[in-house]
Amino acid sequence: MEKTPACQGQNKTPSLSAAIRAFNHYMVDTLDQVRPVAGRTVLDLGASPYGFALERALELGVSEYVGVSLDAPEHLPVSNCTGPSGRLLRMDATRLDFPDDRFDLALSMAAFEHFLDGRRVLAEMHRVLKPGGSALVTFDRIWTSARGHHLHHIEPVAELIPPWAYLLLSEGSMRGLLTPRGSGELPMSVDEVLHWIYHSGEINRVDIREFREMFASLSLRPSGWCRLRRKPLEQPVNWQSMLHCTCRTRQKIF
Ligand SMILES: C[S@@+](CC[C@H](N)C(=O)[O-])C[C@H]1O[C@@H](n2cnc3c(N)ncnc32)[C@H](O)[C@@H]1O
After folding, report:
1. Between 20 and 30 A from 154 (CA), which of 94, 218, 221, 238?
2. What integer is the mean pLDDT of 162-191?
3. Distance, CA 47 to ligand 1 centroid (Å)?
4. pTM
């Protein structure tokens, strides 16, 4: 499977890896502030295959953390010595192999802009959450944000692409823009950049309206959207958002 620049291990510099780890810790801490995680079962959809969220969830005393990801090493059990357990499972979030009402809390970080069938993931998330359970969903750059091409982790490439230009320019025009500047020293070729932006199956190109509609349908009732500042990462704030939802009844209402 083709991997995202965000997740591709071999392309990660130590500083990027540290930043992603810090982001994962920060988001687990944020979930803990919204809904204390100690003693709770937590499902992470589109989890870090490196266990970045897992390690923080165990530190905070979850009774169980399960992270599912297409990139996870096949079924990796991890646990600390005081009892709580953590697992990373290679599993498709559109087809969760868990019974209904299995988890107290759900978490999904920087993954909904990658899920090709976000509606199905939401439905599955809702199915496995207990009544009264809560979910915290955060997004990294979605398609209609200034750097929605999702190459922001590769700064020398990202800085060649004016904000939103990929939404306005055809592939041919983008090639014309990049070719004089992009040959030579870039970590990706112009062909690779164009393939990623216009053809890759690793970003879903869902716009903000569709996301809002997606969360509003399927009987999901978000309790709030808020902008998320990425202060711990010392990165410029771009379109980032997080959403928390509460599963109030068995009638699948968040
Ligand atoms: C950008 S990474 C984010 C990883 C992690 N949440 C983090 O913040 O570091 C997106 C993740 O979504 C996962 N993913 C994409 N589609 C998926 C699917 N259908 N089911 C499960 N995981 C999926 C990928 O395998 C990848 O691990």
Report:
1. 94
2. 87
3. 5
4. 0.84
